[in-house]
Amino acid sequence: MARLFPILDLSSFEQDPAARAMFLRDLRYAARDVGFFYLDGHGISLDEIERLFELSRQFFDLPVQEKQRIEMVNSSQFRGYTRVAGERTRGQADWREQLDFGIERDPVPQNGRQPAWTRLHGPNQWPQALPQLRPVILDWQVRVAEVAIRLLKAFALSLEQPEDVFEPIYGEGANHRMKIVRYPGREQTDDDQGVGAHKDGGFLTLLLQDNVGGLQVEYDGKWVDVEPVPGTLVVNIGELLELASDGYLRATLHRVVTPSRGAERYSVPFFFGARLDATIPLLNLPEELAAEAKGPASDPANPLFRDVGVNVLKSRLRSHPDVAERHYPDLLKAS
Ligand SMILES: O=C(O)CCC(=O)C(=O)O
Ligand SMILES: [Fe+2]
User: What share of the chain has pLDDT > 90, as a percent?
Assistant: First the structure.
């Protein structure tokens, strides 16, 4: 049976013109028809992958008090630890624990005149009890951001745009977020919802999953398993790339089902986003592609803004109401 989610080899994009043309064609179909595919040939080694999983396991094995010392609610940048059921998707608790990171930088001093999203810049929270985690995460951020940029260039070409058409969104300080995630097994909950059905809000998501399985994508009205393929990253399109391509590229609904009894699942989603001060470009597609573009999906419950910072802050406030209440009460009052 043909695979619904193809495996694309990014290294063939950097080879001879024939291999490159084939890669671009496959990429366009994969991203348009299902919006999900596996990426191989990305240059990240199995050792790097294993090291990251090993440190994730060590982090989640820490005593709960250690994890709570860096709870996300301490951070106006939405960085840090979220306990099981601490995050919500469409109002329902997600049965997973996670540690969120963004770009490590100083906060922007506030004088009340900057846009609210400037408060999203700032430091991460690192676990004191596991100092080895920090260099591994910082390294992963660099490695995967590079892959995302190579891939965005390929997306641009596959849409018959100049290779650097997305440069304004990632040049000089792209913005991204990532997290390490643990889904506990069925013996700890009756709930199926590891994470509820959603689309990703950024540009591109590059996900590392272990070999347990549970990620599902909605295709043709059914939920289809994204089986683990060792060494690959699972790539999916975010809503802002869908918006930029006038719906030619699809942001697809996906979810994670709670692992079976006695199992647990680890994953590392990396959300490549645009600079917070960017405005999403609207691509001018050639006629034959424009004819196939469906227009971005519009969901009245989830309006999309072309101003990236506004969009990112909107979705962070919605996912983490405790952070919103502690650090953004001014915005909650206004809305
Ligand atoms: O853990 C996964 O496999 C996917 C998680 C996910 O979709 C997300 O965090 O946006
Ligand atoms: Fe997702």
Answer: 69
* Pocket residue to mutate for ligand 1, from 207, 217, 252, 315, most atoms within 8 A of Cβ: 207
Give me the CATH number covering residue 57: 2.60.120.330
Whether 209 is in the pocket of ligand 1, judged by its Cβ within 6 Å, is yes
* 306 within some domain: yes
Q: Per-residue pLDDT averaged across 5-15, rounded?
A: 94
pTM of the model: 0.94
Q: Name which residue sits closest to atom 3 of ligand 1, judged by CA.
A: 215
Q: Which ligand is nearest to the CA of 95?
A: 1
In a domain, 1, yes or no: no
- Residue 2 within any structural domain of the chain: no
Whether residue 206 lies inside any domain: the answer is: yes
ipTM, interface predicted TM-score of the complex:
0.99
pLDDT value at 16 more than 80: yes
Looking from the CA of residue 255, the nearest atom of ligand 1 is 7
The count of structural domains within the chain is 1
Strand ranges (DSSP E) for 87-203? 88-89, 92-93, 97-101, 175-183, 193-198
**Amino acid of residue 107:** P
- Whether 1 has a pLDDT exceeding 50, the answer reads no
Mean pLDDT of 69-96: 91
Q: Could you say which DSSP state residue 279 is in? A: B
CA 89 to mean position of chain CA atoms: 15
Which residues 6+ apart lie within 8 Å of 40 measured at CB?
7, 8, 9, 10, 231, 232
* 8 Å CB contact between 217 and 226: yes
Nearest CA to ligand 1 atom 5: 269
Structural domain harbouring 121: 7-334
Please name which ligand lies nearest the alpha carbon of 239: 2
